[in-house]
Task: structure prediction
Amino acid sequence: MDPQTALFNLLDAIDRNDRDAVDIQLAALAEWNAKGGFLPAVTRIVNADATFAVARTVRRAYQLKGER
Result:
């Protein structure tokens, strides 16, 4: 399991509004973390707009998860 790849796939699934893929990636990250794995890191955000875009994306992922 590569959590960075899972994060990339999660963000891509959110962008495509693919709820099934969002669920799969969130579950994979949660399982990985529960087993002691490290969470993906967002190490380079170059401006405030990008920061807000990441925050919106993550919030949207949780909204999609809650709509199921």
The chain has three helices and no strands. Residues 23 and 29 are 10 Å apart (CA to CA). Helices lie at 3-15, 19-34, 48-66. The chain has a mean pLDDT of 78.
